[in-house]
TrEMBL record:
Keywords: Membrane, Transmembrane, Transmembrane helix. Residues 2-358 form the SLC26A/SulP transporter domain. It is a multi-pass membrane protein. This is SulP family inorganic anion transporter. Signal peptide: none annotated. The chain crosses the membrane at residues 67-90, 102-123, 143-165, 216-241, 261-284, 304-334, 355-383. It comes from Streptomyces gottesmaniae. It comes from the Bacteria. The lineage of its organism: Bacteria, Bacillati, Actinomycetota, Actinomycetes, Kitasatosporales. The keyword Nucleotide-binding does not apply. It is found in: Membrane.
């Protein structure tokens, strides 16, 4: 019971903040949180992680709503849920763990940067420029003259509370920092009747909108299909990586990744049918659940009950929350998505190629969009892996007047062909040459052709073949 209340208090401002930042009614964030508790909470998969609207999908949802309209949101989320269920049934859940950690961290960093760039405007009750991350960053120079100082002070104070409050461990154990920050800002706004923009309240039933047949027709558009796939893949990756992190923090049952993927998909199908935001498993709420002493699924289910009770009985409370405070909450969340500590670890580990993958992925998301940025990151990660495993060494043993033994060891691919040819060109040509290839684990066509041509040029390819012996020739 106590754990469910803690999770509810953490989830409430985040549900509302993610909805407002996504450009949809605040109530739709609550609907997703309720579904995450009451539906996903009882399904098999993970036992302690908590699902709901996530800051990591804010940028993608905002762009989708702007491009296709709020009426298309339900179709996008429903389609993403169907894809997730299909991936889970096909038992692809575990394969999400094989995605390069640098790509995932770069994805989160890119999302965080774009989220911060957009929400800084909302902290000052200023309108953000249209376009993607580049336009938002470019517009920051003209921001000082456009902000409302009172709203900016509220947003800044919200960030300050989020940073400082957790340091008081006793207080943070009972009252979560997001509630203190947003609740305090709402209280100050109400007491002093500050003229800042506040959350618009429409009512839960008025905000819910089921997709129509005409809306489903959008699934024939290539751009809509791409957005559906992006939502499904990113929500799945975030949920399963969250599950891995939560599993490390408790001694209870481990997550069944395929079942968890089906559970997340079922939740998103229902959210789509209600026209609500997409859901993922959220590490902030999940960590709060574990720290509060949860041992079973009951706490995450009950947190959905408390969200439903609040939305049904106290929806007017949302109207007292300043948008600047929610923006401050998301600026803080966006900064937390940028893996500064992990960057330092990667740099010191000398695997600096991972830092490049992370950085390029993040910058690509800022420059273009989330889907294209992730594709760029995956392509770069694959190229880096191909380069790393394509290690070939040429060992030259001079046996005096008899012969020179040349051993080629490793993986010979076209990526290392220049290095291989440079090494072979340095082999003495005055005596017999014995070329040993038994140490090669893999040879692609380009390197095989180059080795044959080099051997033919020295007239060494005569007689020594598979398993054979001889003084001069090629041993494969």
């Amino acid at each position: 019971m106590a754990a469910s209340v803690v999770v509810f208090l953490v989830a409430l401002p985040l549900c509302v903040g993610v909805a407002v930042a996504s450009g949809v009614p605040a109530e739709l964030g609550l609907v997703t949180g309720i579904v995450g508790g009451l539906v996903v909470g009882v399904l098999p998969g993970s036992s302690l992680q908590v699902s709901g609207p996530a800051a990591g999908l804010t940028v993608l949802v905002y762009e989708a709503v702007r491009a296709y309209g709020l009426s298309a949101l339900g179709v996008l989320v429903l389609g993403a849920g169907v894809v997730q269920i299909g991936l889970g049934v096909l038992r692809w859940g575990r394969w999400f763990r094989a995605v390069s950690a640098a790509v995932v961290q770069g994805m989160l960093a890119g999302i965080g940067l774009v989220l911060v760039a957009g929400q800084v405007y909302a902290m000052g009750d200023a309108a953000a420029p249209g376009g993607g991350g580049i336009e938002k960053f470019a517009g920051l120079g003209s921001l000082p003259g456009a902000v409302d100082p009172v709203a900016l002070a509220l947003g800044g104070a919200t960030v300050g509370v989020l940073v400082v409050w957790p340091r008081w461990r006793r207080g943070a154990r009972f009252v979560p920092a997001p509630l203190v920050a947003v609740g305090g800002a709402a209280l100050v706004t109400g007491v002093f009747d500050l003229g800042v923009r506040r959350v618009e309240v429409r009512g839960l039933l008025e905000a819910v909108r089921a997709p129509t047949v005409d809306d489903l027709g959008l699934l024939t558009e290539a751009g809509v299909v791409g957005t559906v796939l992006a939502l499904a893949l990113i929500a799945s990756a975030e949920s399963l990586f969250s599950a891995a992190a939560v599993d490390q923090s408790h001694d209870g049952p481990r997550t069944d990744y395929d079942r968890e993927l089906v559970a997340q998909g079922a939740g998103n199908v229902l959210c789509g049918a209600l026209g609500a935001l997409p859901m993922t498993a959220v590490i902030v709420r999940s960590a709060a659940n574990v720290r509060a002493g949860a041992r079973t699924k009951a706490s995450r289910v009950l947190h959905g009950v408390w969200l439903l009770v609040f939305a049904a009985l106290l929806p007017g409370v949302l109207g007292g929350i300043p948008v600047a405070a929610l923006a401050g909450l998301l600026v803080y969340a966006g900064c937390r998505l940028v893996p500064v500590r992990e960057l330092g670890v990667l740099w010191r580990s000398r695997d600096r190629g991972e830092v490049v993958v992370l950085g390029v992925t993040a910058l690509a998301i800022v420059a273009w969009n989330l889907f294209e940025g992730v594709l760029v990151g995956l392509a770069l990660a694959v190229a880096k892996t191909a380069w790393d495993i394509s290690q070939v060494h040429v060992e030259i043993e001079d046996r005096g007047d008899t012969e020179v033994v040349v051993r080629v060891v490793g993986n010979a691919t076209f990526l290392r062909l220049p290095k291989l040819l440079d090494a072979l060109e340095g082999v003495p040509r005055e005596r017999g040459v014995r070329l040993e290839l038994s140490g090669l684990w893999h040879v692609d066509h380009a390197c095989a052709a180059a080795l044959d041509a080099w051997g033919a040029g020295l007239a060494v390819d005569r007689g020594v073949r598979e398993g054979g012996e001889g003084d001069v020739g090629v041993v494969r």
